[in-house]
């Protein structure tokens, strides 16, 4: 607008415009520093004051240890260790290729199982559907070691199923045993298909059924609708799930350990470390870290792109009844089979937990049963110590995860500062790094004292364990905090500030208070994962700090399978208790989401 | 007494770079005044209000409360009571706890606090709702809780950011009289943000019309309506016709312009209009200040009806006068007129007004 806008304010005092940057409030009345921080969250300094210690923690315990590992890998023989990966018949090269191959195969298998399950359960109505939906995540909820052990007990050469079939058919050797890489793939498929199942179900739920109907209406046949409508719309979910499964398989350690597949990256890290060749272990760890980070970046890049989301809410696609009588029976049989297969791992652990140690040799299932395993665990202080260790170390780590995770989530979601994306990436880095790599990183960084360990050597002490758990499970708390924070309207905090609350008070009485259910869910998850942790622990524990999973592994080695399973059973019980509590929190959260919907 | 002053306030957001969300705004608001920021979406109303509340700091310029410079004072030290567009009620607190939040921070004693909460809830006609959960209230009730929460701390300035935008039409009108009543009773200064001009007209002592981050005009509702400062204000408020007409003669307070039919008329103009004979003047004529008549009547502007829309109280027409579409809102419409008819327009020359471009 040109001309001369008439500012007809009757009482407007004409004041010469002030163009220089205004000084902070309170100059002359308050000390300058106080003036700077008085602005709280809205002061220009505040974000940096809050973020600096957080960034320091992430640098000190996630990033710097990674560099320490790299330094270790080139410290003695320069790049010689890396050239191992280029030699045609070397262990290094074949381990890398085997790891990549197992991961690719896992993606394929999990994809087929997960997507098929999602379609069957979300699109069809058949007897037993609800039960299967309720238990579908059970195998994946097991701690990694217990999961792998249960599959070993079920499907390996000495497993229940092959031996059962052997007896049934009276053959010479066990029937259809899974060994080596095949065994690893079975474990991966059963424990990782939920990535695909969850992604595909969410995509199916978010998909407007009328889009599909429109395609049929336009004359497309069923195959064509699949090819041209459903698959393209599922693609973003499937790509994300593929990347996740690939990363998780690459990081998998317990399955190769139990099925004796030595030539994988994680196993080589373990073997070299236990043989005392830390530089070579570090080399494997560095290569694995680089691959994992590439996948993390690929995932972030992919998720940053637009995904297909239907515009309208619509109603969920109605499920098709299976009407054909043959189909009905087949569906019923299949759901019974699925239920058995899904519950078999937990069932096996429960069964073996009550078997007498050493009594199970060549029988299909253990022959002698006893409650003694549990009695031993709870009455023998030496047997109980691992449980105490796990609870204590996991609790310490969880407290750290909550404090740091919540604040990082707040900073990333709510504050505007330079380097915000970097902070976000640093947390996710901790998530992307395999547990074995985290352990090697900590070993490299804290075998000697440094600034971040206050000059102390941490390896061989108690503190390295909770530190490892903290690094591994911080992203869990960060993610759930960040997700809850996204549900909370920022103007709530502003309203509190407007009513006179300082930043700390507004944060404490409003934002943090509303975050509680989400943070608690994340904290429980971190705690449970800490109690079940095996992968990093096995590389850094000492005889005083052995956690439950390491104890289980040791008992398995000394053929005390019953006691090992009893420990596992306790972990499983803890997980189920926590799942129930989480479910409660979840419903509480949905109530507050309901409230948010009302106020928005 | 001046309560709130904005002196050459500008705000540039780091991410949007050069364009200023608020550009060199000068406003001074008297104590007890009900002052409205009015303008189309994205013109910088919210940004201005948030700078007064302390959620943003200006890139340049000063904000004063009375004589105190509060430009960089944090929001919790400003003593303003803000009613958020989405209410921003704390979902984990009851109605009474929401209202008492600010009192608790001010360390008001429990008995006193309870009394004031009751009083504030009474003011917004929600007495007895104290124990309700927020999600058990309707949208209008939530809006009133937000108002009570802002009022109860007796802020020096009440800030309202489109507080009625989530309500249905009837509730809007009820609530706006309510807000005005409560503001008068409490004697607070109020700064109100809206893009609804009827709301602004009905409630305000004075209105600042904003566009693209700049203040276009500040004045009382009548002034803004009848004496718009420029073509934007004229068109934005009441969809005025702005006709470009040749100037034949000028005085300090009038401009004589030629009408399309060749007749001439003197039109009131702002002092210092700076127009000279031979130039073109922009003349604002409101749709309701145009009457319909026959083409034969002397002094009538002939035109052809191109659009016709019956809205109940009035009939809105668009009449093509020598190629210029002219909006007309007529209460009395000759029977049987239809699109395509020739019709005469009778401009109310007293109500015409010269505006700046
Ligand atoms: N935090 C921000 N970062 C960058 N740009 C912003 C930010 N907030 C507002 N803007 C920009 O500043 C301009 C003014 O925004 P503002 O919210 O003040 O508009 P408004 O007049 O309140 O509009 P509405 O009526 O739609 O609420 C807009 O162009 C907007 O995009
Ligand atoms: Mg706004």
From TrEMBL, chain B:
InterPro entries: AAA+_ATPase (IPR003593), ABC_SmlMolc_Importer (IPR050093), ABC_transporter-like_ATP-bd (IPR003439), ABC_transporter-like_CS (IPR017871), Mo/tungstate-bd_C_term_dom (IPR008995), NA-bd_OB-fold (IPR012340), P-loop_NTPase (IPR027417), Transp-assoc_OB_typ2 (IPR013611). GO terms for molecular function: ABC-type transporter activity; ATP binding; ATP hydrolysis activity. SUPFAM superfamilies: MOP-like, P-loop containing nucleoside triphosphate hydrolases. It comes from the Bacteria. Residues 4-237 form the ABC transporter domain. Coiled coil: none annotated. GO terms for cellular component: ATP-binding cassette (ABC) transporter complex. Keywords: ATP-binding, Nucleotide-binding, Transport. This is ABC transporter ATP-binding protein. It comes from Micromonospora radicis.
């Amino acid at each position: 607008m040109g001309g001369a806008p008439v500012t007809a304010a009757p009482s407007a005092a004409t004041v010469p415009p002030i163009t220089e940057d205004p000084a902070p409030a309170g100059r002359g009345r308050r000390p300058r520093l106080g003036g700077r921080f008085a602005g709280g969250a809205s002061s220009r300094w505040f974000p940096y004051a809050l973020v600096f210690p957080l960034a320091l923690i992430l640098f000190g315990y996630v990033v710097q240890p990674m560099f320490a590992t790299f330094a270790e890998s080139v410290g003695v023989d320069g790049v010689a260790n890396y050239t191992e990966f280029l030699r045609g018949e070397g262990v290094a090269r074949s381990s890398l290729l085997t790891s990549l191959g197992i991961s690719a195969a896992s993606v394929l298998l999990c994809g087929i199982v997960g997507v098929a399950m999602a379609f069957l359960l979300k699109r069809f109505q058949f007897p037993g559907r609800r039960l299967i939906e309720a238990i579908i995540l059970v195998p994946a909820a097991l701690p990694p070691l217990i999961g792998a052990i249960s599959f070993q007990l079920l499907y390996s050469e000495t497993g229940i199923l092959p031996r059962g079939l052997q007896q049934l058919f009276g053959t010479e050797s066990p029937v259809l045993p899974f060994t080596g890489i095949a065994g690893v793939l079975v474990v991966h498929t059963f424990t990782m298909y939920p990535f695909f199942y969850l992604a595909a179900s969410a995509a199916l739920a978010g998909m407007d059924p009328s889009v599909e109907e429109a395609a049929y209406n336009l004359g497309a046949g069923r195959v064509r609708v699949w090819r041209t409508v459903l698959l393209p719309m599922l693609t973003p979910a499937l790509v994300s799930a593929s990347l996740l499964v690939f990363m998780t398989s690459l990081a998998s350690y317990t399955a190769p350990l139990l099925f004796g597949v030595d030539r994988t990256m994680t196993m080589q890290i373990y073997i070299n470390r236990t043989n005392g060749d830390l530089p070579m272990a570090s080399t494997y760890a560095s290569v694995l870290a680089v691959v994992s980070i590439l996948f993390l970046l690929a995932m972030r890049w992919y998720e940053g792109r637009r995904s297909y989301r239907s515009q309208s809410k619509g109603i969920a696609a109605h499920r098709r009844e299976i009407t054909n009588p043959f189909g009905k029976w087949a569906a019923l049989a299949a759901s019974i089979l699925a239920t058995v297969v899904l519950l078999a791992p937990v069932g096996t652990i429960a069964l073996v937990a009550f078997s007498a140690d050493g009594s199970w040799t060549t029988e299909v299932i253990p022959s002698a049963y006893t409650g003694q395993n549990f009695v031993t665990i709870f009455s023998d202080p030496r047997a109980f110590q691992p449980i105490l260790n796990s609870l204590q170390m996991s609790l310490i780590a969880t407290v750290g995860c909550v404090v740091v995770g919540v604040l990082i989530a707040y900073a990333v979601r709510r504050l505007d500062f330079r380097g915000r994306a970097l902070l976000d990436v640093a947390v996710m880095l901790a998530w992307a790094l395999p547990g074995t790599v985290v352990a090697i990183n900590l070993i490299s960084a804290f075998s000697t004292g440094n600034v971040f360990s206050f000059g102390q050597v941490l390896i061989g002490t108690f503190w390295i364990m909770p530190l490892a758990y903290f690094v591994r499970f911080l992203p869990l708390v960060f993610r759930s905090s960040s997700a809850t924070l996204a549900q909370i309207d920022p103007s709530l905090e502003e309203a509190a500030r407007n009513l006179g609350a300082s930043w700390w008070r507004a944060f404490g009485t409003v934002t943090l208070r509303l975050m509680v259910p989400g943070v608690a869910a994340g904290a429980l998850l971190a705690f449970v994962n800490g109690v079940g942790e095996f992968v990093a622990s096995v590389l850094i524990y000492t005889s005083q700090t052995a956690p439950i999973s390491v104890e289980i592994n040791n008992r398995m080695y000394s053929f005390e399978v019953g006691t090992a399973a009893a420990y596992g059973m306790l972990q499983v019980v803890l997980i189920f208790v926590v799942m129930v509590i989480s479910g409660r929190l979840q419903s509480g959260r949905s109530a507050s989401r309901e409230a948010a919907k009302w106020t928005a | 007494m001046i309560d709130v002053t904005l002196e050459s306030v500008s705000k540039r957001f780091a991410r949007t770079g050069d364009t200023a969300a608020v550009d060199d705004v000068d406003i001074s608001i008297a104590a007890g005044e009900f002052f409205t920021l009015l303008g189309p979406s994205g013109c910088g109303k919210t940004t201005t209000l948030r700078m007064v509340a302390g959620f943003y700091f200006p890139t340049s310029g000063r904000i004063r409360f009375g004589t105190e410079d509060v430009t960089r004072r944090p929001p919790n030290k400003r003593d303003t009571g803000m009613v958020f567009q989405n209410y921003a009620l704390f979902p984990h607190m009851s109605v009474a706890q929401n209202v008492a939040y600010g009192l608790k921070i001010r360390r008001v004693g429990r008995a006193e606090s309870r009394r004031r909460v009751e009083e504030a809830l009474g003011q917004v006609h929600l007495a007895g709702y104290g124990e309700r959960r927020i999600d058990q209230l309707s949208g209008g009730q939530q809006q009133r809780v937000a108002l009570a929460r802002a009022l109860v701390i007796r802020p020096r300035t009440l800030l309202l950011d489109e507080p009625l935008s989530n309500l249905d039409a009837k509730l809007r009108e009820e609530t706006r009289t309510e807000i005005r009543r409560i503001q008068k009773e409490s004697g607070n200064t109020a700064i109100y943000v809206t893009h609804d001009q009827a709301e602004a007209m009905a409630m305000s002592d004075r209105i600042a019309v904003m566009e693209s981050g700049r203040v276009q005009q500040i004045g009382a509702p009548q002034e803004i309506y009848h004496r718009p400062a420029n073509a934007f204000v004229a068109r934005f408020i009441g969809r005025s016709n702005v006709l470009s007409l040749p100037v034949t003669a000028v005085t300090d307070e009038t401009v004589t312009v030629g009408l399309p039919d060749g007749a001439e008329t003197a039109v009131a103009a702002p002092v210092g209009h700076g127009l000279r004979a031979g130039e073109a003047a922009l003349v604002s004529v409101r749709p309701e200040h145009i009457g319909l008549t026959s083409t034969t009547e002397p002094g009538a502007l002939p035109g052809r009806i191109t659009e016709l829309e019956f809205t109940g109280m009035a009939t809105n027409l668009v009449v093509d006068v020598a190629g210029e579409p002219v909006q007309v809102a007529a209460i009395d419409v000759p029977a049987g007129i239809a699109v395509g008819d020739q019709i005469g327009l009778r401009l109310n020359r007293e109500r015409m007004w010269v505006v700046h471009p």
